[in-house]
Write a structure and sequence with these properties.
Length: 147
Amino acid sequence: MNKEKNPSVVTFGEVMLRLSTPAFARFTQAGSFIVTYAGAEANVAVSLQNFGIPSAHVTKFPDNDLGHAATQSLRKLGVNTNGIIYGKERMGVYFLENGAIQRASRIIYDRFDSAFAHIKQGEINWNEILQDVRWFHYTGITWRHLL
């Protein structure tokens, strides 16, 4: 990890490509999608960074333009990305239809066979990443990748 930006908090989880309908359009009405990258644990790192708490996010992305764009999106928000690894697999995707008034939002997940799902024991150097870290954050869907 970069010692200049040694994080106080490290988060670990999948970041996915989010394709959302513009405004409040339904999936059946959308002619285009808005691209962002999102994941619950990464969102925690971004929020903590906004509060001035140095944070890092660890995940696995595909080694292609989408994976590198996702890494850049975290870096732009100040999150340390030195623990991110890359592989040959694909990026998980989810589609978001924003709700309107009484109509709830809808989400369709397509995360099967993602790079994150293929993390193998020993790929992440946890001893280095967690050195001097005060807090480690992950969620229930992620715990199996820690075994």
